Request: fold
Amino acid sequence: MSAHEDLFESVPNFSEGRRREVIEAIASGASPAFVLDADADPDHHRAVLSVAGFRSRLVEGLMGAIGDAVERIDLREHSGVHPRVGAADVVPIIPLGDTALEACRGLARDLGERVWSELKVPVYFYGHGEGKTLADIRAGRAKPDVGGPDVHPTAGAVCVGARRTLVAFNVILYGLDLIAARALARAIRESADGLRGVQALAFELPGDRVQLSMNLFRVDEATPSDVIAELERRGVAMGAQQVVGLCPAAAANPAADGRLLEGRLASVAASAGATLAAERGGEELMALAARLRREAEQLALLAADQDAILAGAERAAALVRVLRAANLADGELEAMLGVAARGFRRGLTPATESIYRARIDALDARLG
Reply:
C-alpha cells in the first residue's frame, strides 16, 4: 500500500444500545476496518462505533456493520431518547491526517450507492457539499438521495456524509427540569449566538435525570473544558461528564480518559503489528508480538493528562521504527501511527512544552 493513500475515520451510529449480542455482531461486521471503539448507551438506545483505515478497508468494514444492523435491528420495536431515521442511522466519513474533506465526500457517495444497491436501504447524503443537515433530514425537510421515496420497513434509511472531527459530549444537570434544560441547550448553541461550534439538546433520562447532550463540531473553537467553563459561569450544577466515542487529544478533558482518538489509532496499529509478528513466528518475533500486544493495551487506555499525552506521542513515533525494523510496517499502519503521534503533539500545552523542552524537541525531530 502507498504511504500517501488517504486515511479515513468513520463514526457510525446505530439504533441499538441495549442488546449486547447485537452490538457485538455489528462491531464484528465492521472488522474489515480497524475498529477503534464501540460505545453503547442504553438510555439513548444507541451504539457508536469508531473505525479507521484506507478507503477500501473502511468501505468494506462499514458495509459489514451496516448490513448486520439492517439484519438485526427493527425500528418498529425501537424506543430511545435520541432522534433517529434508521437502524444504521448516521455514517459520517471523517478525514485523518492530510486527507481532504472532498475525498470524504466522494467515499460517502460511493458508500451510499452500495448501501442502496446491496441492502436496498434508502440513503440521505448530508454534510460537506450536500446542502442539507441531519436536522433537515430528521425534520422531514429532505427526501432520500438514493433509493426511496419510501424508507425500508424495518431499517429506515441511512444518513451518510462527510464532516470534520467532532466531540460528542454529555453532562448530567442538577437542579433543572427538562424545560429549563432545553432553554439552557438553546442558549449555548452556536445557532443562538451561544458557544461557537456547539450543537446542544436536552433529554430526560430514566431515574429523573436530565442530560445536556452536545456535539462540539469545531473542536479548535469549543472543547469540553470550554463548555464546562460556560456552564459554571452560568451557575449550572453538574454531575457526570461523558465523552461518547473518542476525543482528539487537543480537545480532551478528564472525561476523555481512556478515550483518546490518537491512543486508539496507535493501539490498533500495535495490535496489527503483533498479529503479523505472531503469524510469521520465530522466537524473536513471538517475543515482539507479546510486547506489541502489551503496548496496544496500554495505548488504548491512555489518560487525558499532559504527561500521558506526551508519552503517547513518543510511543506512537517509536512504534513506526519498531515495525520497520521488524519488516512489519506498511503504509496503512505507518499512516495511523503518524496521525496518532502528530495528534498527541497538538495536544501538548505551552506549559508542557516549557517543562519538557528537550523531550519535545527530540519528538519534533522524529516527526519531521
Remarks:
- The two ends are 22 Å apart (CA to CA).
- The CA atoms of residues 21 and 30 lie 14 Å apart.
- The mean pLDDT is 96.
